[in-house]
UniProtKB/TrEMBL annotation:
Native source species: Caldanaerobacter subterraneus
Protein name listed in UniProt: Phosphate transport system permease protein
Pfam families, alphabetized: BPD_transp_1
One of the protein's GO biological processes: phosphate ion transport
Family annotation (InterPro entries): MetI-like (IPR000515), MetI-like_sf (IPR035906), Phosphate_PstC (IPR011864), Phosphate_Transport_Permease (IPR051124)
GO cellular component: plasma membrane
Alphabetic keyword roster: Cell membrane, Membrane, Phosphate transport, Transmembrane, Transmembrane helix, Transport
Membrane topology value: Multi-pass membrane protein
Function: Part of the binding-protein-dependent transport system for phosphate; probably responsible for the translocation of the substrate across the membrane.
Molecular function in Gene Ontology: phosphate transmembrane transporter activity
Domain (ABC transmembrane type-1): residue spans on this chain: 77-287
C-alpha cells in the first residue's frame, strides 16, 4: 500500500513538473515568436524599401502613399511622448496622494469608498473613456479654449484619468506593505503623522511608487483607442496643447487596415509596431531595475 502511494505521488509530482515546465517553455516560445515576427516585418522598411533609419526616426513627413514614400515617424514619437508624459505629470501626484489618504489618513473611507471606486475605474473599457472624452471633454475644450476640441490636451486628460487607478492601487499596496515598526519608530521619536508620511513612509516606499508611475507611463504609451478618439489624428508635431496630433498607437490602428501587405506603407506601420514593442521592453527592464532596489533600507 505504501509503495503504491509512493509511486502515485511521484507520478503526480512528475506530471506537475512537466505541466509547469511546458507552460514556461510555451510562454518563452510565444514571446520570442512574437518579437521575431514583428521584427521581421518592421525591419523590411530599412532592408527592402531602403529607407534610412535616420529618416524614419527624425523626419516629420508622413506621406507613405506617394510614389516615393515618405515615412517619417517623428510626429508620432513626439505625440506619444508628450501625451504620456503630461498625463503622468497629472495622474502621478493625484494617484500617490490618493494612496496615502487611503492607507494612512482615512483607512475606513479608503476601504469602503476609494478602493471599490478604483477597482471600478480599472475595469472600465478604454472605449468608454474615449466615448466620454469625445462626448464631454472635446466639446468643453472647443467651447472654452477654442479650436476643434480634438487636441493634445484632450488626450492628456483622458490618459490622466485612465492611468490614475493603476498608480493609486500599486502605490497603496506598496505603502500598505511597509512594516508597522518604521511607523512606530517614527512616532516614538516624536514625529507627527505628516512628518512620518513625508520623511519615512514615502522614502521607504519610493521604489514601489516609482514602479507604479512607470506602469502608468507604460499604460499611457500603449493606449490606442481612447486616445485615438479625442486627439484628432493629424500626422504633425503639435505646437500647442490645443492642436490635433497623432501617436504611434493611433496611426497604427487607423491605417493598418487600409494598406496592402508588403508595401512601403504597410512596412512602415510594422516598423512603428516594432518601435512600440522595443519601448515596452524598455519599460519592463526599467521596472525590474527599480524593483531590485528593494522596498526600504
Amino acid at each position: 500500500m505504501d509503495k503504491r502511494y509512493e509511486v502515485a505521488r511521484k507520478r503526480q509530482d512528475m506530471l506537475g513538473k512537466v505541466i509547469v515546465f511546458s507552460s514556461a517553455v510555451l510562454l518563452i516560445v510565444l514571446v520570442i515568436s512574437l518579437f521575431y515576427f514583428v521584427a521581421s516585418k518592421g525591419l523590411s522598411t530599412f532592408i527592402v524599401n531602403k529607407i534610412p533609419l535616420k529618416e524614419f526616426l527624425f523626419s516629420a513627413e508622413w506621406r507613405p502613399d506617394r510614389e516615393v514614400p515618405q515615412v517619417g515617424a517623428l510626429p508620432f514619437i513626439v505625440g506619444s511622448v508628450l501625451v504620456s508624459i503630461f498625463a503622468i505629470l497629472i495622474s502621478a501626484p493625484l494617484g500617490v496622494s490618493s494612496a496615502i489618504f487611503m492607507v494612512e489618513i482615512s483607512k475606513k473611507m479608503g476601504q469602503k469608498i476609494l478602493q471599490p471606486a478604483i477597482e471600478i475605474f480599472v475595469g472600465i473599457p478604454s472605449v468608454v473613456y474615449g466615448w466620454l472624452g469625445l462626448s464631454v471633454l472635446v466639446p468643453f475644450i472647443s467651447k472654452h479654449f477654442g479650436g476643434l476640441g480634438f487636441s493634445l490636451l484632450a488626450g492628456i486628460l483622458v490618459l490622466a484619468i485612465m492611468t490614475l487607478p493603476t498608480i493609486t492601487s500599486v502605490s497603496a499596496d506598496t505603502i500598505r506593505s511597509l512594516p508597522v515598526e518604521i511607523r512606530e519608530a517614527s512616532y516614538a521619536l516624536g514625529a507627527t503623522r505628516w512628518q512620518t508620511i513625508r520623511h519615512v513612509l514615502i522614502p521607504a516606499a519610493k521604489p514601489g511608487i516609482l514602479t507604479a508611475i512607470i506602469l502608468g507611463l507604460a499604460r499611457a504609451f500603449g493606449e490606442a483607442l481612447a486616445v485615438q478618439m479625442v486627439i484628432g489624428n493629424r500626422p504633425v508635431i503639435p505646437k500647442s496643447f490645443l492642436e490635433p496630433m497623432s501617436t504611434i498607437t493611433s496611426i497604427i490602428t487607423m491605417e493598418m487596415g487600409n494598406t496592402v501587405m508588403g508595401t512601403a506603407w504597410n512596412n512602415a506601420l510594422w516598423s512603428l509596431a516594432l518601435l512600440l514593442l522595443i519601448i515596452s521592453f524598455f519599460f519592463i527592464i526599467l521596472i525590474r531595475l527599480v524593483g531590485r532596489r528593494g522596498m526600504y533600507r
